[in-house]
Amino acid sequence: MPDLRAVARELIQRNQLHTGRVRLRLVITAGSGGLNDLALGQDYSIWMTAFPAPDPPESLAVCISPWRRNEHSPLAGLKCASYAENLIALDHARQNECDEAIFLNTAGELCEATMANLFLVKNGILRTPSLASGCLPGITRELIVELAIRHGFSCQEGALSLDDFHAADEIFLTSSTRGPVPVSGKSGPYTHQLRELWRGEILK
Questions:
Q1: Which domains, and CATH codes, for the chain?
Q2: Pairing between β-strand 62-69 and β-strand 170-175 as defined by DSSP bridges
Q3: Of these four, 10, 110, 172, 178, which has the most CB atoms within 10 Å of its CB?
């Protein structure tokens, strides 16, 4: 496996992406081998792309996806190329004049957005679905939890319902390309503070 940091630096240099935000995308293929063999073949491929990334939006309009996330799937919690469910739900959101769709899981619990993790704030407590919900263990999700705890926020991971979603004082989504972004009409002081901490401590 090559030094991916070195590859990323070279890719940014060659594409002259010296200023502004850059999005890197890494893909690893399985290579040759039987369908029943999950090990990488000797001819597996790795490629990385780099391109300018837009500034994150000030807020995102969301809706609830009509389709459920299967928290018992063997692919639950994995980031892979099988993104058809996410793209269909995202298209549904955009047809309904929204930017993102929120998945419930088969138990009717909040899970995640199509391209982001989900956080709620209620009565000063930061809450996010646990990994048992089937959500992706996002890097930014983990960093936001760490930031929150380090700066004295009360933070809980666990099962959350649709009622919790509607009753939340604040709601925001997190992803590596955007950081924390408030949901339209559900911004507030906790979201703002975490967004400033993200910019000051992670993006510095």
A1: 4-52 (no CATH), 62-202 (3.20.10.10)
A2: unpaired
A3: 172
